[in-house]
Design a protein that fits this description.
8 strands, 3-stranded antiparallel beta sheet, single chain, mainly alpha
């Protein structure tokens, strides 16, 4: 068996003997040392190239064209400082030529060192072509820009990224000619020679990594496989920079591996682009002297491993260098097959860039590496840079996809003093090129690391085209058949997409992620591949057209079918439309597509005002201008920028009227009504809605009619005209049902649920919310489901069912987080904050409000920020921190004034009155309450008017102005009983009236009022209110002298407060202590001891 293997090896590889002269080896040693010294002294890449050009030019001056190549290259590099116009583009050209030429010069240098001038004999035509190419670059691409004449810029205005890509392809072709055509022959001659001067320095084991973060779960299974199985064969796979070599080196140095495999070898395949050279590199690692090497070198390697008295561990790094070359794959696989049979005590560990392992007959245990998670990425950055992660660092780390090499380069640059904000800006403009620490090696430049994969031999031009197009799709390419067929239609004919995708996956440039799955790439790879898109390519234009047609066809976000198509593609649609903008590809229907996307984005609570504005600057048809202007107004309105919105609606209306577009006119009138609604200009809003309704009715547009009826219902809700609102909602619901529009039905049921809450009809409200949730679930509208869960949580909180409310808030928060709705998350954190306030968990409430404020600030939702500042002001009031409360409320009112939100201003004014009232500044409180009442009367909000009358009544009670108090409280009660149905506030007002009667000594009237308040609180399922009413009854019975009834009332109150953990349980316990003291159950000092009273209460509960 062994003999047949040896024969196979000899026949497969041929004879590996050196043909070079003995002196060539010493030349290589000197050249290698010179190159190393140049790099070690810290010379930059340009200096290195210039030195190489000088050395090669002088050494081979007698060879035609070699000196010419070196001379022209030097001119290209030095012309940089003379460029006056188009500096950035010229700089890119110079950098490109310099980078590629460095590799070419190194190859030429090796050729000369190995064989002298005769080594160039077969390269004459290539050298001539390369010299001509460099001259053309110098004369046509660079020298014209040494002047500042305007006509030069004009003539060259068409030159763009496509030219750079063409240059790059041509340079890549020359690099292949020189580095691959002769390198194999020269390297074999150098590395396999015999003679007295030949000696081998075995490759040392790489040092053990000093810092490894988040890889324990990867390393340990590899070690266990190696230790547990005979003849282990392990392949570590993954994209470039992911840490394959690091993991392999950790394994190599593990103490258990050292014990099990005392003989360990390391082979780097980076400089071995053929199977023959790989064999030589393995022979070098095994320290087989060149003078002793046989023609059947593979058999000699096998024999060497077999003769070792200890188990052998061989680590071959970067095997893809040779394996990716198609004509070398079978040779490498055959070499590994033979190598594997060397010994039963022989372990092989390989690393390969990509996701494909060698095609050997024996199996490989594979470990595919992925990026670090965000936590480990942060830890690695902080450990390496010595700096904590700030906002720019966190954002940059997110864009690096957890690639350890990228994190290491970023940390090194920060440690050297680079500014993170500038690095982030550079990343946005230049991608991976922004992260480098000098040199063009893959470990010192993220761009070079990615480039090695993208331009590897296995990736052809079609593969790079597909990468460029998928890079335009941040959400990735869906793996569903319709999407793949659509994507394939934009590619050149005869493209076999599935085959190309498989190749890209095997190269670890694409991976399938998510469920349903999509083809995606790591962020740095995507950023690099965006540069591959040729602006002149028809494929890019076709992709834009594909997405335009899709978004126009599926404009209706109420359709569940459209949702299933559009929602997963939102990021892609935006990116591809912007690509169309950059291409100036503006078909007639571009505005319709942009408006359709804006509708979806607004529905998803995404602010796309800047995106829309960029299209409005273009020369598009009037109808498209009108559509985009309308949507810009809608978006600004959605995000509370009312003044900006007002600028766009009249312009859109004017354009639609000019075009005699009645539908556009109706849509704009509806939006104008929405704007006036936000400003609480309800009469003006009603007029705009009436105009829109008339136009929709004329056009028989049922959808539009339904939308307007819904808006009219909302308008009457604001006026507290609940019956009229209910009638409008019923009209909207009937139309949506006729249209079979589940989304519209869900929205109306949701609004009706709010209406029933206003009436305190909590059962009916819950039923409507349940109907809304059912409709949203049918159409799989996650936003709607989250909204209903949040509102039902509010309802349960209203009923004092706080635990159940918390569960629904958590459910809503999870849904909002899943769909990345920052707006919804913020609203829910606000509700959770109020829930914590109800539980008297004020610190937790503060945390929730802070989370909401941060989210509102992130999405620049000023109305939300203002409302949260108001909530925080309320929280400070609960803590009796009146100064902080005043500061927070004042900050909120400033925000409301900025956005001209009259309702918000009124709410802040009312709450400031509360602050002054608590601070005993009764005059200031009176002024604020009066001002707030004026605001509410202007707005027409009966509920808030009643609440303010109630607060004014309490203020008069404080002043003992009992007649004025009675007037104000009766005004409030009249509104609650005749105009709005709000049981909680009616109960609160009735309790205040009871206190008024108590001040007057009217015990029977006081008892009736407190009992009525208790009845209202019970109807509203408010345990807090019930507890307060029982406590008021206890106070009344105390003053009346009925101690037993007082004790009973206080006990009932205390039980309720303890159930809901309300802060009033402590003062209520002291009230009960006073009763016990008067009953002589305890003494007076014990009645003031809260701990004693609590112990007595607990004892009573126990017995």
């Amino acid at each position: 068996m062994r003999q047949s293997q040896s024969k196979d090896i000899k026949s497969f590889f041929g004879t590996l003997v050196a043909h070079g002269n003995p002196r060539s080896h010493s030349r290589l040693d000197r050249g290698t040392l010179q190159s190393a010294s140049k790099l070690d002294t810290g010379l930059n890449a340009i200096s290195t190239t210039l030195l190489l050009a000088k050395d090669v030019g002088e050494a081979a001056s007698q060879v035609p064209y070699v000196k010419a190549v070196a001379g022209v290259l030097s001119q290209i590099i030095r012309i940089r400082d003379e460029i006056q116009v188009n500096k950035e583009r010229c700089g890119e050209i110079i950098d490109l030529v310099q980078r590629k030429s460095t590799t070419i010069l190194q190859s030429l240098d090796k050729v000369y060192e190995a064989k002298g001038a005769e080594g160039f004999e077969d390269l004459k035509s290539d050298l001539e072509a390369y010299a001509d190419f460099l001259r053309a670059v110098l004369q046509e691409e660079l020298e014209p820009f040494k002047t500042q004449f305007r006509w030069t810029s004009y003539i060259n205005r068409g030159k763009n990224a496509g030219d750079l890509q063409k240059l790059e392809r041509e340079l890549e072709d020359f690099k292949d000619r020189f580095s691959m055509k002769r390198l194999v022959e020269i390297s074999v001659a150098l590395l396999s020679q015999t003679g007295p001067s030949a000696k081998i320095i075995p490759q040392a084991l790489p040092p053990s990594p000093k810092l490894v973060i988040g890889r324990d779960s990867v390393v340990e299974p590899i070690i266990q496989v190696i230790l547990s199985f005979p003849e282990p064969r392990v392949a570590i796979l993954g994209p470039g920079g992911i840490g394959k070599t690091t993991i392999g080196t950790i394994v190599l140095h593990d103490s258990r591996i050292i014990t099990a495999y005392p003989t360990r070898y390391f082979v780097s395949s980076e400089l071995a682009p053929t199977a023959e050279l790989l064999v030589i590199r393995v022979a070098d690692a095994l320290a087989i002297p060149p003078s002793d090497r046989r023609t059947d070198l593979v058999s000699q390697i096998v024999d060497t491993i077999r003769r070792d008295t200890y188990p052998v561990f061989l680590f071959i790094d970067n095997l893809e260098t040779v394996w990716d070359i198609e004509e070398e794959q079978q040779k490498v696989d055959r070499f590994l097959e033979v190598l594997s049979g060397a010994s039963s005590k022989f372990a092989i560990l390989i690393t390969m860039r990509g996701a494909q392992k060698p095609k050997t007959s024996f199996p490989w245990d594979t470990s595919v590496l992925f990026g670090l998670d965000s936590s480990n990425s942060i830890t690695m950055y902080e450990e390496l840079s010595g700096n904590p992660v700030d906002v720019p660092a966190r954002e940059l780390l997110l864009k690096l996809g957890g690639i350890p090499l990228a994190i290491k380069l970023l940390a090194s640059m920060v440690e050297e003093g680079d500014d993170l904000a500038e690095l982030l800006k550079a990343w946005l403009y230049h991608g991976p090129k922004a992260l480098e620490i000098g040199g063009i090696h893959r470990l010192s430049s993220l761009e070079q690391s990615v480039r090695l994969s993208v331009f590897s031999p296995r990736i052809d031009d079609t593969g790079r085209l597909v990468l460029g197009l998928i890079a335009l799709m941040p959400d990735g390419l869906s793996t569903s058949t319709p999407w793949l067929e659509g994507f394939e239609s934009v590619l050149p004919e005869a493209t076999f997409l599935q085959s190309t995708l498989r190749t890209l996956r095997r190269a670890a440039l694409l991976e399938k992620t998510g469920e349903p799955s999509r083809w995606q790439m790591l962020p740095p790879i995507r950023q690099f591949c965006l540069q591959l898109i040729d602006p002149t390519s028809s494929a890019g234009v076709s992709l834009v057209r594909l997405y335009i047609e899709m978004i126009i066809e599926h404009w209706n976000h109420a359709s569940s079918a459209s949702q299933s198509i559009i929602l997963p593609e939102m990021g892609n649609i935006r990116s591809v439309l912007l690509h169309g903008l950059n291409l100036h590809y503006l078909p007639f229907w571009i505005g319709e597509a942009v408006a359709a996307y804006a509708g979806w984005a607004t529905w998803q609570n995404i602010d796309e005002s800047i995106f829309l504005s960029s299209f409005l600057q273009l020369p598009i048809p009037t109808v498209e201008q009108a559509n985009i202007s309308l949507w810009l107004g809608k978006v600004h309105l959605r995000w509370g920028r009312l003044g900006v919105a007002e600028n766009f609606f009249p312009h859109a209306l004017e354009l639609f009227i000019e075009l005699q577009d009645r539908l556009g006119e109706a849509n704009t009138q509806k939006s104008i009504g929405d704007l006036h609604m936000r400003r609480e200009q309800l009469d003006t809003a009603e007029a705009a809605f009436a105009c829109a309704l008339e136009l929709y009715h004329e056009l028989q547009n049922r959808w539009g009619e339904a939308e307007v009826y819904y808006a009219i219902g909302d308008l009457h809700m604001r006026r507290e005209q609940l019956d009229t609102a209910e009638a409008a909602f019923a009209c909207a619901l009937e139309l949506y049902h006729e249209l079979q529009n589940r989304w519209g039905e869900a929205e109306v049921y949701y609004a009706i649920g709010d209406l029933h809450m206003r009436r305190n009809q909590l059962g009916a409200s819950e039923a409507s919310f349940t109907q809304a949730l059912r409709c949203y679930s049918i159409i799989q509208n996650r936003v709607g489901e989250a909204n209903v869960n949040k509102s039902m949580g509010d309802l349960l909180m209203y009923r004092d069912q706080l635990d159940a409310a918390e569960s629904l808030f958590k459910c809503a928060l999870e849904l909002y987080s899943e769909i990345q709705s920052r707006w919804g998350e913020a609203n829910t954190h606000n509700s959770i904050g109020y829930l914590h306030v109800r539980r008297d968990q004020l610190d937790a409430a503060g945390t929730s409000f802070a989370s909401a404020l941060e989210l509102y600030h992130e999405i620049q939702y000023r109305e939300g920020e203002a409302n949260i500042r108001l909530s925080i002001g309320n929280l400070h009031m609960r803590r009796d921190q009146l100064h902080e409360a005043k500061t927070s409320i004042t900050s909120a009112v400033e925000k409301f004034i900025e956005i001209n939100d009259k309702r918000g201003i009124a709410g802040c004014t009312f709450l400031l009155g509360k602050v002054y009232f608590r601070n005993k500044e009764l005059e200031a409180a009176d002024a604020k309450f009066s001002q707030a009442l004026t605001y509410w009367e202007d707005i027409g909000d009966n509920l808030c008017m009643a609440q303010t009358h109630q607060a004014i009544g309490d203020l008069h009670l404080q002043r003992m102005q009992l007649d004025d108090a009675e007037t104000s409280l009766n005004l409030a009660l009249d509104i609650f009983t005749t105009k709005v149905t709000y049981r909680l506030d009616e109960a609160l007002t009735t309790r205040s009236i009871g206190k008024l009667y108590l001040f007057r000594g009217h015990f029977e009237a006081s008892e009736r009022a407190f009992s009525r308040a208790l009845e209202l609180d019970t109807t509203a399922s408010s345990r807090v209110g019930q507890g307060q009413s029982h406590r008021c009854l206890g106070e009344m019975f105390m003053k009346k002298g009925d101690l037993n009834a007082a004790e009973s009332s206080y006990i009932d109150a205390l039980r309720l407060f303890l159930e809901i953990k309300d802060y009033q349980m402590a003062p209520c316990l002291l009230d009960l202590g006073k009763v016990w003291a008067q009953q002589e159950k305890i003494n007076k000092s014990e009645a003031l001891d809260a701990e004693f009273l609590k112990a007595r209460w607990d004892e009573g509960v126990a017995t």
